[in-house]
Design goal:
The chain is α/β, with parallel strands linked by helices. It contains 15 helices and 17 strands.
């Protein structure tokens, strides 16, 4: 029993018990994942809709795509299942407004890996979940942790409203980057997080290492760092050993290591690339392989105690496995959890500082 986990019925079970029509809001990968779970659980959606401006008379997975206004004209009372991610204020506000007019769920499907995040899943891992909760440094981290878990079980967006922290506040109050950082960016994308750090150091730093496995993203990254001094970028994935791995390039942020690809990418460890420099900040957003990236940086984490920024939302078990792994490598760390503006509970990150 975990006292702070109060949601015991999953969004999936609530949807299975629904008598009202269920409409999926959105198309794409999120909708496909939700529909796959629906099929497993015998949940039959009444249809699919998109925002009015995106509807062009097309279909998705055999369903005619309606406008929201059309659904509201056809059906008096229905349930909405959100099937896409919202990461900017105007879209989040739109979803909140829909929540006031209709029953709306955001059921959790993992970005990577399998299984569902349910109360039973939490009970099976109760000891680890409680250990992380007890090890967090401040009350707000514990509130964030509890709310994220309850949201992921229930799909109720109310849990996210009170725990959202602006990115600038996290940098200023927890990471506090200075002018002499040796920054390691794992999953560097197009250089956006390098840019973020440099905003708070007024462009000053000692050295930057960046890894990005997707070729298109790597080209954008290379363009961004062109002309910068003391920056070394690798077209590689962050891993636990130096090797090569099968890799599926999907462009954007969704590229990932996968066994179902004929293409390979170089994989490197942080410990093997830092030369004789002591990393002072390590950021990890590597699409579900944060655990392997941590292992590959374990010597640096244990010896140099860099500030850490680690994604906690890709795999179901990340929310407890990754903080415990960091504590095991270096018990002296202070652990914080913060959630930035996002629906569902993506952009929930672990911050570890000394």
């Amino acid at each position: 029993m975990i006292s702070f986990v109060t949601e015991k019925t999953s969004a999936w079970d609530k949807l299975k018990a629904e008598k009202r029509p269920i409409f999926i809001y959105g198309m794409g990968d999120g909708a496909l994942k939700i529909m796959a779970v629906f099929r497993q659980m015998g949940i039959n959606p009444a249809g699919i809709f998109a925002s009015d401006e995106f509807v062009r008379g097309h279909s998705f997975e055999g369903y005619h795509v309606h406008k929201l206004s059309e659904v509201e004209e056809m059906v008096d009372d229905f349930v909405i299942v959100l099937a896409f991610a919202a990461g900017y204020q105007s879209l989040v506000d739109k979803i909140k407004e829909l929540y006031t007019r209709h029953t709306l769920y955001v059921p959790d499907v993992p970005v990577a890996g399998g299984g569902l995040f349910t109360y039973d899943f939490c009970l099976k891992n109760a000891e680890k979940i409680q250990e992380v909760y007890d090890s967090l440094e401040d009350d707000f981290s514990r509130q964030v942790y509890a709310n994220i878990i309850n949201f992921r079980i229930s799909g109720d967006i109310r849990y996210l409203g009170s725990i959202t922290t602006p990115k600038a506040e996290i940098y200023k109050e927890i990471i506090k980057p200075g002018p002499h950082e040796v920054y390691v960016d794992l999953g560097a994308y197009n250089g956006d997080t390098i840019r973020e750090v440099l905003e708070f150091t007024k462009g000053r730093y000692s050295y930057i290492y960046a890894m990005e496995p997707d070729w298109k993203n790597y080209k954008k990254l290379s363009k961004f760092i062109d002309g910068m001094h003391n920056v070394k970028a690798y077209h590689a994935a962050a891993w636990c050993v130096d090797t090569e791995l099968p890799f599926a390039s999907k462009a954007g942020r969704q590229s990932a290591i996968t066994a179902q690809s004929e293409y390979t990418v170089e994989a490197l460890t942080v410990d093997s690339i830092i030369e004789d420099r002591a990393p002072s900040i390590i950021k990890m957003d590597v699409e579900g392989f944060e655990r392997e990236a941590i292992w590959g940086a374990s010597q640096s984490i244990g010896h140099y105690s860099p500030k850490l920024m680690i994604s906690l939302y890709h795999r179901n078990e990340d929310i407890f496995e990754l903080p415990l792994l960091i504590k095991n490598i270096n018990p002296e760390y202070k652990l914080f959890i913060r959630h930035q503006l996002y629906i569902p509970a993506w952009e929930t990150n672990l911050y570890a500082v000394m």
